[in-house]
C-alpha cells in the first residue's frame, strides 16, 4: 500500500487543463481559444523577429550561463522599470523603485504576495470579480486573505463602476487593491482615464495600496506608453504601489518565465529596504531567476533599432487580434437572427473576449463544436484566425439560443 493514499487527485487547471483536452481531440475543426497565447493567421505559435535577433546577439557575444544575482540581471531590471514608468520618470532617478526580476507575471505576483504576507499580515487584497483564475490561487497559497470588488456588469456587458468604487470604499483602510494595468482579463473591459482618476482618488482617501498586474503592456492599444498610463497616473500622484510585469505576451516569451516585481516607494531608503526583503524571500524559494529571457528583454529594450522593430511587431499582433475581433462581430451580427446586440465584442480590449456564455453554453461549445475555452465564457481571440470566425460565430449562436 502506498504512502500516498491520503493524496487525492487534483482537478485539472481551469485554463491550462483546456489545452490538454484540446490536444486529445481528433476533430479537424477543433479550435483552442482557452489559453491567452498569440497565434499567426495559420494558428501557429509565433516567435518575434526581434527575439531571434536578440538571441543571435547573445550567441555572437558568447554570453555565459553563470548565476544571476538574486535580484536578477541589472540591465533587465533597469530596462523593465523604464518600460513601465517611462525612462525619464523622476522616481527612477530618485532611486525610489525596488525592482526584482521575477519568474514571469505569476512568479512576480507570488513574490509580492509573500512580501505582503510577511510585512502586512493584517491586510487583505481586493481583487476584481471576475479576474484571471490564478490570482485567487496565488493569494491562497501565500496565505494572504482576499475578497472581491464588483467589476463586471452582465446587464451592460460593461464595467460596474459604481459597484467597484463602493466596494473599494467599503474595504478596511490600508487594503491592497489588485488592478489590471490594461486589457482586463477575462472581461477585456478597462476603466476610462476619467474613471482611473476617480479610482486613484478613492484609493488615496482610503490609504489603500494599489497593486497593478501588468501582463499585456502594448497589447491593449498597441502602444507601450499608452498601456502603462494607468500605472503612471498613480505614480505621478506620489503614491506607493506594487507592479507585477510579464513579458509572456508582448514579447511572446511565455516559456522563458521573464517578468518583474516593482515596488514604487516614497523614499530611496524605503526602496532599498523593500528590495533587500524581496531578495530575502526569493532566495529560499528559487535562489535566483533564469537569465535567457532577461537578456532578450535587455537587448531589445536597450537597442533603439530592435526596440522600434519590437513596437511594429507588437502593433502587428495587436492589429491582427483587432481584425479578428471585427470579423467575429460581423459574422455574429449577420448570422444571428435573434436581434441580439453583439457590439460589446468590439468594445472589449486586448487578447480576450468575454462572450457572456455560461458554463452549460461553454460546455456546448466544446462538446458539440470542438471549441475549447474557459468555462467563464472567455475566448482568446489571439488563438483565432479570420478564416475560422464564421465557424466560431455558428458555434456561439448555436450555444446561446
Ligand atoms: N496576470 C494576468 C492577468 C494574466 O492574464 C497572466 C497570463 N495569463 C499573467 C498575470 C501571468 O502570466 P505569466 O506568468 O505567463 O507571465
Question: Care to give the gist of this entry?
Answer:
It comes from Amborella trichopoda. Belongs to the class-I pyridoxal-phosphate-dependent aminotransferase family. The protein contains 16 helices and 13 strands.
Query: How many β-strand stretches?
Result: 13
The radius of gyration over CA amounts to 21 Å
**Ligand inventory:** 4'-deoxy-4'-aminopyridoxal-5'-phosphate
Total number of helices: 16
Q: Approximately how much helix is present in the residues?
A: 40-55%
By secondary-structure content and strand pairing, the structural class works out as: alpha/beta
Unreliable runs:
none
Spatially, the strands of the biggest sheet line up as 2-10-9-8-7-3-4
What sort of overall outline do the alpha carbons produce when their principal axes are compared? globular
Mean pLDDT rating: 96
Listing every helix as H and every strand as E from the N terminus to the C terminus, the arrangement reads: HEHHHEHEHEEEHEHEHHEEHHHHEHEEH
Q: Which percent band covers the strand fraction?
A: 5-15%
Main sheet makeup? 7 strands, mixed
Alpha-carbon distance between the termini?
51 Å
